C-alpha cells in the first residue's frame, strides 16, 4: 500500500533539497511513522507535491537505499526497509573488543565467562607421551618450519576424521591454523575489502565482530531465532545488495546455545547458491551434545561448495594448543593459502605432529568420550540449579550442548548493574552487550560453565539467583 508523507522544505536553507527530503523521510522511518515495506510515493508525484525536480526525489531515494532504510523493486517503486535488519552504512562498522586481563580475570572467585572445557579433562598424560614419541622419532625436524597449509600427515588424518562426520573433503583444501580465531582473520583478509558487507547472526561471537570490523567491513546483524537465523530478513537484504559471506555457528551457538533445524540449514544453502555468497560455518562445539542427535553440519549438507568449514581442534583437546583448521571450497584454496602465509608463515610443527599421532591413537575416542561425559554431568547440574534458584523473570532456552546459557530479563532491565552486583559477591558473568555491534546495554547475559567446578556451581547459583531476583 502506498503511503502519503508530509515533508516541509526550507528554500532558504543551505542544505540541498534532496538532503532535506532524505532527512525528513529518514526521521519518519526511524520513528515508525512510515511502516516497514510500505511503498513510498512515486518520484513524479512526490516531486510535483513538493515543487522540485524529479532528480531531487531520485537522489533522496537513492540515499535512503544507501543507508538501507529503503529498497526498490524494478517496475514497482521504492519501499521502506525492515528496521530489524541493522547495519551501519554511513561509516565502517566499528566494534571494540575488551581484551581480558589475566590479573582482572583471576580476581573473580567463580568465573562464568569462559566457554571451554575444564583443564581437569585435558589429556595431559597422553600428550606428554606422544610429544616424547614425536621428539624421539623426528628429533630436530619436529621444530622445522612447515608448509603454510599445514603438516601433510595431519591434513590426511583430518580428511578421515571428517569422513566419520559425513563431511567429504580433500587434504589439498585443508588449512591448519592457530585456532578458529586465526581462521576467521585469514578468511576476512582473503575475502573482504573495506566497505564489503558481511552478515552475522545477532547476537554473535565477539571475536567475529572484532575481526570483521578491523577489516573495514560493514556488518549486517540478522536476528537469531529459536530455530536459527531469520532467513526472511537475510533474503530481504541480499536481494538488494550482495554480501561476501554469512558467518554462523549452527550448533550450540555462542552465546545463545541455539542450534539450527535441518530445514533451515537446507534453506540457507539454497539461498547461498541463489545469491552467490559464501557461508563461514564455525563448528564450535557440536561434539559436546548432551541430548540432541544428528547435528548435521552445513558443510555435510553442502552440494555446491559454498561452505567454508572452520574448526578448532584445540577446543576438543586443550584450548591452549591454539590449533584449528579450515576446509575451504576448491576455488578459494590458493587465496586462503596465500593469506595464511602472510599471517604467520606456518603453524607450530610440533603441535601438529603430536595431534596427528593423538587422533590416530586408540586413546583418543576413550578420553574424548570421558570429557563429554563429565561435561554432560556439569550441564545437567547447571540446568537443575537454574530451575531451583533462578526467578521466572530470567528466561532461557536449554541448549542441550556446548558450554553456555543465554538469559533474557524483562523489558526495561539491563545486565551491566547485575554483573557488577554479582562480581561484588565473587561471581563473574558476561553481560550481553558485548555480543552486539552497537554494544549498548541490554537485557541479556551469558553464563559459561565449562570451566567451573561442580561444587563451585552449587555455591554460586543460589547467590546469583538471589542477585537476579533483587535486580528484577
Molecular shape: globular
Based on the coordinates given, report the CATH architecture of the largest domain.
Answer: 3-Layer(aba) Sandwich
**What is the CA-based Rg, rounded?**
25 Å
Oligomer: single chain
CATH superfamily of the largest domain: Type I PLP-dependent aspartate aminotransferase-like (Major domain)
Q: Supply the number of structural domains.
A: 3
Keywords:
alpha/beta; nine-stranded mixed β-sheet; three-stranded antiparallel β-sheet; Aspartate Aminotransferase, domain 1; Arc Repressor Mutant, subunit A; 16 strands; Aspartate Aminotransferase, domain 2; 40% helix; single chain; globular
Outline the structure in words.
The chain has 472 residues and is of the alpha/beta class. It has 3 domains: 17-83, Winged helix-like DNA-binding domain superfamily/Winged helix DNA-binding domain (Arc Repressor Mutant, subunit A), CATH 1.10.10; 102-115 and 365-471, Alpha-Beta Complex (Aspartate Aminotransferase, domain 1); 132-361, Type I PLP-dependent aspartate aminotransferase-like (Major domain) (Aspartate Aminotransferase, domain 2, 3-Layer(aba) Sandwich). The protein is built from 16 helices and 16 strands. The protein has helices at 17-30, 43-50, 54-66, 102-106, 124-138, 152-163, 180-191, 206-214, 231-238, 262-275, 298-301, 333-344, 349-359, 363-389, 416-424, 454-471; strands spanning 70-73, 77-80, 86-87, 110-111, 174-177, 197-202, 218-225, 228-229, 245-248, 278-282, 307-312, 324-327, 404-408, 427-428, 430-431, 444-448.
Amino acid at each position: 500500500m502506498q503511503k502519503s508523507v508530509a515533508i516541509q522544505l526550507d528554500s532558504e536553507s543551505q542544505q540541498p533539497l534532496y538532503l532535506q527530503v532524505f532527512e525528513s523521510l529518514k526521521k519518519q522511518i526511524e520513528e515508525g511513522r512510515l511502516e516497514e515495506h510500505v511503498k513510498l510515493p512515486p518520484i513524479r508525484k512526490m516531486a510535483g507535491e513538493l515543487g522540485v525536480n524529479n532528480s531531487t526525489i531520485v537522489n533522496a531515494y537513492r540515499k535512503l537505499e544507501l543507508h538501507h532504510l529503503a529498497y526498490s523493486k524494478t517496475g514497482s517503486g521504492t519501499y521502506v526497509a525492515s528496521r530489524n535488519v541493522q547495519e551501519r552504512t554511513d561509516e565502517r562498522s566499528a566494534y571494540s573488543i575488551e581484551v581480558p586481563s589475566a590479573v582482572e580475570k583471576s580476581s573473580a572467585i567463580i568465573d562464568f565467562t569462559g566457554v571451554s572445557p575444564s583443564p581437569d579433562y585435558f589429556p595431559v598424560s597422553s600428550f606428554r607421551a606422544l610429544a616424547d614419541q614425536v621428539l624421539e622419532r623426528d628429533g630436530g625436524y619436529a621444530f622445522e618450519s612447515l608448509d603454510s597449509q599445514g603438516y601433510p600427515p595431519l591434513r590426511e588424518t583430518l580428511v578421515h576424521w571428517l569422513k566419520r562426520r559425513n563431511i567429504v573433503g580433500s587434504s589439498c583444501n585443508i588449512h591448519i591454523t592457530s585456532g578458529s580465531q586465526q581462521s576467521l582473520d585469514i578468511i576476512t583478509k582473503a575475502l573482504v575489502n573495506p566497505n564489503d558487507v558481511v552478515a552475522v547472526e545477532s547476537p554473535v561471537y565477539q571475536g567475529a565482530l572484532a575481526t570483521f570490523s578491523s577489516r573495514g567491513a560493514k556488518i549486517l546483524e540478522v536476528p537469531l531465532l529459536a530455530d536459527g537465523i531469520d532467513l526472511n530478513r537475510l533474503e530481504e537484504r541480499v536481494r538488494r545488495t550482495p554480501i561476501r559471506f554469512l558467518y554462523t555457528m549452527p550448533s550450540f551457538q555462542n552465546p545463545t546455545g541455539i542450534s539450527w533445524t535441518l530445514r533451515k540449514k537446507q534453506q540457507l544453502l539454497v539461498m547461498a547458491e541463489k545469491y552467490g555468497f559464501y557461508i563461514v560455518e564455525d563448528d564450535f562445539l557440536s561434539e559436546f551434545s548432551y541430548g540432541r542427535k544428528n547435528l548435521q553440519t552445513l558443510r555435510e549438507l553442502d552440494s555446491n561448495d559454498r561452505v567454508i568449514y572452520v574448526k578448532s581442534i584445540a577446543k576438543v583437546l586443550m584450548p591452549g594448543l591454539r590449533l584449528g583448521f579450515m576446509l575451504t571450497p576448491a576455488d578459494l584454496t590458493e587465496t586462503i593459502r596465500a593469506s595464511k602465509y602472510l599471517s604467520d608463515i606456518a603453524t607450530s610443527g610440533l603441535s601438529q605432529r603430536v595431534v596427528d599421532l593423538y587422533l590416530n591413537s586408540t586413546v583418543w575416542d576413550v578420553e574424548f568420550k570421558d570429557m563429554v561425559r563429565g561435561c554432560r554431568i556439569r550441564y545437567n547440574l547447571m540446568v537443575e540449579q537454574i530451575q531451583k534458584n533462578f526467578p521466572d523473570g530470567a528466561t532461557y532456552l536449554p541448549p542441550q550442548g556446548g558450554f553456555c546459557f543465554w538469559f533474557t530479563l524483562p523489558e526495561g532491565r539491563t545486565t551491566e548493574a547485575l554483573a557488577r552486583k554479582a562480581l561484588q559477591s565473587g561471581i563473574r558473568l558476561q553481560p550481553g552487550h558485548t555480543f552486539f555491534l552497537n554494544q549498548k546495554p541490554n537485557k541479556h547475559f551469558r553464563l559459561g560453565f565449562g570451566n567451573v567446578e561442580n561444587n563451585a556451581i552449587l555455591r554460586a547459583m543460589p547467590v546469583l539467583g538471589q542477585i537476579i531476583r533483587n535486580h528484577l
